[in-house]
Amino acid sequence: MPIPCAFSRVFLRWRRRFLCSATATPPCLERQPNYPSPDPATSTRLQFGSPPPHRRTLTQDGPVTSDNTPGTTGVHLLVPLKPLARAKSRLLAGRGSAGHVELVTAMALDTVAAARRARGVVEVVVVSSDRALTEAFTGLGVEVVPDDPGDGLNAALRHGDEVLRARGAFRVGALQADLPALRPGELGWALRAAGTDRSFCPDLGGDGTTLLLGEPDQPLDPRFGPGSAEAHFESGAKSLLGPWESLRRDVDTEADLTAAEVVGLGPRTAARLFRSGG
């Protein structure tokens, strides 16, 4: 007996809705519009030097672009860092203690160096009370704000946000320090895609957050920790998914570090791995 047309249409609509819901992507990872590739003029070129041929190295140092000066409508980025003795415990477990502190420091230095060269970044300020990190960054002309709260990542970022906004920063963001393959052009393109919206960039695993941008003239309201991507999405931030793999390629484990090598490590991280034999 043939199925009535009206019933058939209802059944097909129900079937499509059921199948879509069964395979739906979490809201915080819904794909954004297909952004064009970053501007080649602001992308970082690859260089080959002392590291082995299979290891690509990014040139990340150099003068900050002319539009990244105080008084512009760009972003003031905070980079929080734990004391080196407690940093990257999972990476330490996978690689051992030899050269661990130096590797973590190199990754942070490469991350900050790349961020300082990205279009739309006014300044990068590190939040840390670690003496060795403070010396390393101030030696490169990077401001370090002491982590006076000493009560975890979010407290450090709220403190840094208050310090920057008290002296006139119009828009503040937070960038994780474990992005040794970060390319200035890709960070700049993500900032452009964010516009003036509260936004975040999830890591490639989809659970964590590598970049958080507050709305202009509003508190940063960081919600880092397990499930931070979902937490930031629920706070009203839009997710930034686009052609910026280096911005999402954070390093927590040995496998993450190997994957970052494929993208192209910053010069300090690559040199540290070369000296330690990988």
UniProtKB/TrEMBL annotation:
It is an enzyme of class 2 (transferase). Residues 29-75 are annotated as: Disordered. It catalyses: phosphoenolpyruvate + GTP + H(+) = enolpyruvoyl-2-diphospho-5'-guanosine + diphosphate. Signal peptide: none annotated. Keywords: GTP-binding, Nucleotide-binding, Nucleotidyltransferase, Transferase. SUPFAM superfamilies: Nucleotide-diphospho-sugar transferases (SSF53448). The keyword Chloroplast does not apply. Phosphoenolpyruvate binds at residues 209, 225, 228. Its EC number is 2.7.7.105. InterPro entries: CofC, Nucleotide-diphossugar_trans. Pathway: Cofactor biosynthesis; coenzyme F420 biosynthesis. Residues 59-72 have a biased composition (Polar residues). It comes from the Bacteria. GO terms for molecular function: GTP binding; phospholactate guanylyltransferase activity. GO terms for biological process: F420-0 metabolic process. The keyword GTP-binding applies. Pfam families: CofC. Gene3D superfamilies: Spore Coat Polysaccharide Biosynthesis Protein SpsA, Chain A. NCBIfam families: F420_cofC. Guanylyltransferase that catalyzes the activation of phosphoenolpyruvate (PEP) as enolpyruvoyl-2-diphospho-5'-guanosine, via the condensation of PEP with GTP. It is involved in the biosynthesis of coenzyme F420, a hydride carrier cofactor. Belongs to the CofC family. This is Phosphoenolpyruvate guanylyltransferase.
